[in-house]
Amino acid sequence: MTGFPPWHTASERGPRERNADAVSAYAAAGAPGITFALADGVGDDPAAGLAARTAATAAARTPVADGPAAAILNGQRALQKVGGTGDAVMVVAMPFEGGYRIAWVGDSRAYGWDGHMIRKLTEDHTMAEYFRRRRQPYTPRMEHVVTTSVRTTRPDEIGTTEVIGGGLLLTSDGVHKVLPPSTIDAILADPSRGAAALVAAAIELGGRDNATALFVEPPAADPAVIATEPFRTAA
């Protein structure tokens, strides 16, 4: 794989006291591909922000050949080395020929983008999703109670998937739990917008959390984007 498609990221603190989200991307010199990581610290304190930054940085430094699940575990080892109790949820994406391999813990998400619509690729690791899949009652609060995290996950609990073709969107819950899919579709369909517009819309629509998005454009050869214009890089 040679070259990387354009990608853009944006993050806003929102009404929280601090921004405990973090994004990291790294491409080792001479190595194929680039690793993307988006982490969301658990809580609204300095330990949460440190955990997100530490996990995202360690995950992004994982060689593409090792795979995204290994990146999650590298984030875990980095948190253990730092010590303390700070924790985060995270989603990691690595390209392979024709698509992306993805791993996650918690409720950070990955979506595929075909130039028209997003498609959710990950399944939230939350109490609400656990009971929903079993057709059992749950409360709104359970949407925010995660069942896996970077610090606590076992290897067999890490979610994994892959997607072929198109672009890729990674989000913290401050974006996807505020914006309906139709709104995300409309924003990404406009070439002059992207990650920054998603984050701004989430805050404007009353989001109460940090909001972070990372958008990787579809490859130039993808038929879905032949007639589009380049996205402007988010500030």
UniProtKB/TrEMBL annotation:
Residues 1-21 are annotated as: Disordered. InterPro entries: PPM-type-like_dom_sf, PPM-type_phosphatase-like_dom. Residues 6-218 form the PPM-type phosphatase domain. Residues 10-20 have a biased composition (Basic and acidic residues). Signal peptide: none annotated. SUPFAM superfamilies: PP2C-like. This is Serine/threonine protein phosphatase. It comes from Amycolatopsis panacis.
